[in-house]
Amino acid sequence: MENHTFEICLALGVVIPLISFTILAFFGANAPFGKPRAAYLALGAIASSCLLATYVLISWYGLSLEQKAQLTQEAFRYHWADFGSISIDVGVKLDSLTIIMYFMVTFIASFIHLFSIGYMAGHSDEVGGECKFHRFFAYLGLFCFSMLGLVISSSLLFLFIFWELVGLCSYLLIGFYFDKKFASDAGMKAFITNRVGDFGFIIGLALVVMYTKTFDLDAAADAFAQQFNAGTGIFAASIDLFGWHVSGLTLATLMGVGLFCGAMGKSAQFPLHVWLPDAMAGPTPVSALIHAATMVAAGVYLVARVFRLLTPDAQFVIAVIGCITLTMTALIAIVQKDIKKILAYSTLSQLGYMVFGLGVGAWTAALFHLMTHAFFKAMLFLGSGQVIEGCHHEKNIMNMGGLRKKMPVTCWTFFIGVLAIAGFGIPGTHIGLGGFFSKDEILAVAYERAFNMHAEAHGESGDSHGDNDNHGDTDDHGSHVRADVGDNVQLASAGSNTTALLAVQSANAMASGEGGGHANGTQAKMDIAATLPQLPKWMFWLPIIIAYVTPFYMMRCWWLTFMGKPRDQHVYDHAHESKLMYIPLVVLAVGTVYCSYWVFRPMISQASEVAANAPAVVAFDGKIHDYSEIPTHAMMTLTHGEGMVNPHTALAYIVGISWLIGMLFAAILYWNGPKLAGRIKDAVPGLAFLHKTLENRLYIDHVYDFILVEGVKTLGRLWGWFDTNVIDNFVDLVAYAAKGIGVTTGRQLDMGVEKGDIGLVDNIANAIAWITYSTGSGLRRPQNGRIRTYVLLTAGAAGIALLFVLIWSMSSDATEVISAASAQ
Amino acid sequence: MLAVGLQHYLILSAMLFSLGVLCMATKRNAIGILIGVELVLNSANLNLVAFSKYQTGTGDGHIFAVFVILLAAAEAALAIAIFMNFYNNVRTIDVDRGDELRG
After folding, report:
1. Residues of B at the A interface, defined by Cβ within 8 angstroms
2. Candidates B21, B96, B103; nearest CB to A783
3. Domain count of the fold of chain B
4. What average pLDDT does the segment A670-678 reach?
5. Residue B25 is nearest to which of A777, A785, A791, comparing CB atoms?
6. Which residues are CB-neighbours of A432 under 8 A, at least 6 positions away?
7. Closest partner residue to B102 among A84, A785, A795, by Cβ?
8. Is A680 exposed, middle or buried (0-12, 13-18, 19+ CB in 10 A)?
9. What is the ipTM of this complex?
10. CA nearest B36 in A: which residue?
């Protein structure tokens, strides 16, 4: 008998917030749930989920790798229904990634609930009063339910269902102040933009189910790998999709990109990023929970979950999108004035880093970044909530300044958040906050992919042999040299040289990885390894540059808010700090400092090992794409010492102190408020133009507005014109014709007759009129214009008809019986 | 254990249908009526799928049901648009107030 304790705990933790939601939704407005009690109920629900999550986390942490792998294998599955030959299972996905995500969501949600009690007490009274207060906590409960459900789903179908549910919650909470036009507009914008992404998601989902015949995440990935190695299934298929003929690898890529489209909507990546800044119209705790820490990370989580279904081309698309997003939004963040908008754009930029990381194959690093980001961004948003609340809804940082004296706790916890997002750390040591390690790890992998492809390809075999860091790296380095020699000296035979190298490597991967039985897979594997694209150089340099921009805009935000002299005396005089909201800020700050490296990194690297049931992340072709063991520069310099020639040593000094340079620059520039920066902007030609462009979000919203909104309106006007001028005229013409005919015939038949004639036509007409009139007045009584009467009449008539049919069939049965009897 | 057969579905569907009609006949709130309509449509869906599963064995009923769902979505969109206009004219969505067309 298997032990399902973990699954039960996790599932229970999902259901508890739902119960809280149900109670609050139906009875929240009633007397026993006065203002604070509604919040306590919701807080209690999520806190008990968090306790369950803590229990699971601690027990899971104590298990050995083999036990974890076994538990993952035997995780609970319930056969729910069949869809043709495809079975739909309800199950819990049990691995390190699920558990750590689950813990992160419940932990942050608990403290945000706590924060909300203080925050919403002041905010809900503006509109709707009591009614709004419990509704807020009901929505939060629904959100927690959906988000946790999304995390533990083992099947893509349920993942999609919960995916839509979190979208709904996001819509409800963005538009929480629905009586304000901009808030309800922002909610709609978020919902509709997500719909665009979900369209791609559905296509991807349909392709997965069509070719792998399963909804299960693991089974689908296994089937996909098998199909690739055997060249069957999706790789032998070719279909017409929207009039576009796709087949084989392209179709597989399209599938991956389709799934990524969903992530693009939810994680707000480049073409669909427009909704996230507007989503700041919601209450600040919501921004912290949904639009910074958890829901927007769902897209990244999805990509991580379906990573084995992504072809190299699909990964490349993901990397490009991530790279564009992280660059563009970081630049926009520099010029924003609204404290929440700055945080929103920095969230976008960090999400870009995560997506970029997944795209280049830095699975572990990207998820590590997700976790650390969730903590410090939730804290930053709560800090901004504290500031906005304390300054009486002043959001413009230009009117703040000097607030450190009025709200010291907020100031310094916010500063820890700034340090974390800037990537504070000292290269060469273990000292540093989460952002330092996670961001650097992503960049290290990007470096590998942009400059060092062959070495990486061979390094895998080293990694798959053993976990010894040192050994793997030496191997890595040696092969790098060998590959270079092969390429440079013997250009003509370079191809065959590489092929031989890859053959060795794929044989190694097969021997150690899961795909022991695919003897004929070698050829295919070689092909795919050869097509794994080398990243263009700009995709390495842009994230590096943005690593300098990030500390700059975050420091600008912090400095203008808390340091310097007060710029608006009125705001400053009335500023205060709410004691109720201390605890969440301090706890999250401690979490940011503590959990950053020591807890999450090992958990996630274990997740990558257990997730695919192999020593590393197994990519879609069954080949091991393990970038997780590429050490970060901090580790590198420790393991290799000073003398080693190593790319990461250089990287350490390029990126490692970016936080210091960026923050110092911002501090100097904004030492005395924004005046100096303004003068520089006016003095340097071109800068003002750049500033304006960035302030208008690169005009992307304008373009969407022009093409989509105006386009639809123009189309509507066009059809309106067609309606009034063409169709109406035609109808008028018919009417005129009928009138003309009537007049003519009337003269002939009716008016042309002699006096005293009875007038046949008239009489007939009168008779018909009389019949119509009397029938009409008879039927007039039931026509009272009430829908309910009509429905009743219709239902009654249908009932009578049914009765007749029954009687008739019974009597005809009787006749048959009689006729049968008489025949005897 | 009792096996679930066609008639169970039919009974459930009949109940749903009756509830839907009742809802349509008793509610004065336009949204309530819309919900009643949805219930009726879904009872029809249930019938389609149940018959398709137990009688024909083909997927036709499923496809019909999907079409009905699609139709219901379109209908809801349209109905709500009508309610909005109704509200603009009468300042309420009590359908009994919309009886200008009575005989």
Report:
1. 21, 24-28, 33, 59, 95-96, 98-103
2. B103
3. 1
4. 81
5. A791
6. A423, A424, A425, A426, A596, A597, A634
7. A785
8. exposed
9. 0.70
10. A791
Q: Which residue of A has its CA nearest to B57?
A: A84
- Does the residue B2 lie in any domain? no
Alpha-carbon gap: B67 to the closest alpha carbon of chain A (Å): 17
Q: Do A785 and B33 touch (CB under 8 A)?
A: no
pLDDT of A106-134, one tens digit each? 999 999 998 888 888 766 555 555 567 78
Tell me the one-letter amino acid at B27.
K
Q: In whole angstroms, what is the distance from residue B9 CA to residue B23 CA?
A: 21
Our CA-based measurement puts residue A773 at a distance from the nearest CA of chain B, in whole angstroms, of 12
DSSP A382-428: HHHHHHHHHTTS--BGGG---GGGT-HHHHHHHHHHHHHHHT-B-TT
Range A546-566 average pLDDT: 88
pLDDT at A640 (0 to 100): 33
Distance CA(A100)–CA(A604), nearest Å, equals 8
Residues of chain B in contact with residue A184, where contact means CB-CB under 8 angstroms, are none
Residue of A nearest to B28 (CA): A788
**B70 found inside a domain:** yes
Name the one residue in this structure whose structure tokens are 């018909």: A768
A188 neighbourhood in chain B, CB within 8 Å: none
Q: Is residue B5 part of a domain?
A: no
Dihedral sign for Cα atoms in the order A465, A471, A474, A477: positive
**Maximum Cα–Cα distance across chain A:** 128
Q: How many CB atoms lie within 10 A of CB A349?
A: 24
In this prediction, what percent of chain A has a pLDDT beyond 90? 21
Which residues on chain B are in Cβ contact (under 8 Å) with A780?
103
Structural contact between residues A361 and A445, judged by C-beta atoms closer than 8 angstroms: yes
Mind listing the pLDDT tens digit of every residue in chain B (103 residues)?
A: 578 888 899 999 999 999 999 898 888 888 999 999 999 999 999 999 999 888 887 888 888 999 999 999 999 999 999 999 889 988 888 887 877 766 5
**Residue type present at position A532:** L
CA–CA dist B96, A349 (Å, integer): 54
CA atoms within 13 A on the CB side of B92: 8
Average pLDDT over residues A643-649: 38
**Min Cα separation B82/chain A (Å):** 14
CB contact under 8 A, A795 and B25: yes
What are the residues facing A86 on neighbouring strands?
Answer: A83
Residue A162's CB: how many other CB atoms inside 10 A?
Answer: 21
Whether B83 is in a domain gets the answer: yes
Q: Evaluate whether A65 touches A609 at the Cβ level (below 8 Å).
A: yes
Strand ranges (E), B10-99: none
Q: A802 to chain B nearest CA, in Å?
A: 13
- Among A84, A786, A795, beta carbon nearest to B21: A795
Closest by CA position to A100, among listed A439, A435, A598, A600: A600
The three-state secondary structure class of A596 is coil
pTM assigned to the model: 0.75
CB contact under 8 A, B102 and A787: no
Q: State the CB neighbour count (10 A cutoff) for residue A709.
A: 10
Contact flag A787-B95 (C-beta cutoff 8 Å): yes
Sequence-ordered strand ranges (E) for A554-698: none
Secondary structure of residue A589 in the 3-state scheme: helix
Longest distance between any two alpha carbons in chain B, whole Å: 57
* Enclosing domain of residue B41: 29-93
User: Looking at CA atoms only, how far is residue A785 from chain B in angstroms?
Assistant: 4
Report pLDDT digits (tens) over A5-16.
888 899 999 999
> In the predicted model, is pLDDT for residue A505 greater than 60?
no
Q: How, if at all, do strands A238-241 and A244-247 pair?
A: antiparallel
Give the pLDDT score at A750.
61
